[in-house]
C-alpha cells in the first residue's frame, strides 16, 4: 500500500538554531574576569598587582556585559510576549537572588534586610538591564540617540538625586554603551570587526589597557569607574571638568570592548563556548559562593604569591563550574522561574484572519535582524 502524502497541516520538526560561539566566547571571558575581581576585591588594597588588574580589565567586565546586553536586545515595541519575558528572565531572578543574598548574609551573622529598591552586590545589573530594555524603543526614536544618551550620561553626574536607588545612576550612565551594543548587533562597524588590519590594532588596545592598569592604577580613582554617584570636587579637573573624565572613561570602554570582540575567536572553542552560554548563571551564582569565603576570612588569608595564584585559579575554576550545563539545569527554576501559569493572565485566542497583521504590516513592525548573528538562540541569556 502506498504511503499517503502528508497533509497540508503537517509540519517538519523544529530544530533549535545553533548559537553563535563568538558571543559565548566573549561572555565567558567577561564573566570570568568579573568572578576574579569579586574574589580578590577584599584584598586588593594589600597587593598592588591586584589593584592593577582591577583597572586594567575594567572595560572587559561590566562595560563588555552592557554592550553584549545591547547586542541582543530588541528595539521594537514591547508587546505582551516581550514584557512577560522581562518579568520572567530579569525581574523575578533579581528578586529571588536578592532574597537568597539576604538569607545568606543573615546566616553569616548580619541583620536580615530585604533588598528591593537597592539590590545588593552584582544584582544592580539586572535592575539596570530591565530599564535599558524599556528605554531602548524610546531611544531609537531620537534623531541622534548616541549623542543624546551620552549627554544625559555626562549631565547626570551633576545631580545628587541619582544614585544607587533603582540603579538610577548606572542606568543612565551606561545607557550609551547599551545603545552602542544594539547598533553593533545591527551591523555597525562590522567591516572593522572583520578586517585583517584591525586585529593588530585591537591587540595594541588590549596591551595598552593592561599598561595603564599597571603604571597608572594609583592615579585612577575608583569613583571614575563605579558610575554609582554624582561627581566629586576632588577630581583633577574639578567639578567643571568632571564630565570630561567620564566621557574619556566611557569612550575608552567602548573602544576596548571593540578590541576584545575583535581578538575573540569566532569559531567554537572546546569548553569555552559551552561555558560561555551559561554566563548569566555565572553572574548570578558567584556572589553566593564568594560571600561566605570572604566573611569567614578565608580569602583574606591569601598573602604569598603562591596563595594569590591559587586564589586566582580557584576563581577561574568557580566560573567554569557555575557555567557548566549541569549547574545551569540545576538552578534553572531560579534563573528562569516557571511562573507562567499562575503569574500571567492567559492570552486571548485570536481567530484565523481576525486581528492578524498583513505581510506589509509585519514588515514595518519587525525590526531589522542583527547581521552579526543569525538566530535568536542567544537572545534568551542576554546578560550572560
Please characterize this protein's 3D structure:
The protein has 18 helices and no strands. It is globular and about 65 Å long. Helices cover 58% and strands 0% of the residues. It starts with 20 loop residues before the first helix and ends in a 19-residue tail after the last helix. Helix 1 (21-40) runs parallel beside helix 14, helix 2 runs antiparallel to helix 10 (198-216) and helix 10 (198-216) crosses helix 12 (242-263). It is mostly helical and 384 residues long.
What is the distance, rounded to the nearest whole angstrom, between the alpha carbons of the first and last residues? Answer: 53 Å
Count of individual beta strands: 0
Structural class: mainly alpha
**SSE order:** HHHHHHHHHHHHHHHHHH
Estimate what percentage of residues fall within beta strands. Answer: under 5%
Overall average pLDDT? 86
SS element count, helices: 18
List the uncertain runs: 1-16, 352-356, 358-384
Question: How large is the radius of gyration?
Answer: 22 Å
The coarse overall form would be: globular
Largest sheet: none
Helix content: 55-70%
Main traits of this protein?
single chain; 384 residues; mainly alpha; globular; disordered N terminus
Concise synopsis of the structure shown:
By secondary structure, this protein is mainly alpha-helical.
SSE map:
Elements: H1 21-40, H2 48-56, H3 62-71, H4 80-107, H5 124-139, H6 145-155, H7 168-173, H8 175-185, H9 190-194, H10 198-216, H11 222-226, H12 242-263, H13 272-276, H14 279-295, H15 305-322, H16 325-335, H17 340-343, H18 359-365
Helix pairs in contact: 1-3, 1-14, 1-15, 2-10, 3-8, 4-5, 4-14, 6-8, 10-12, 14-15
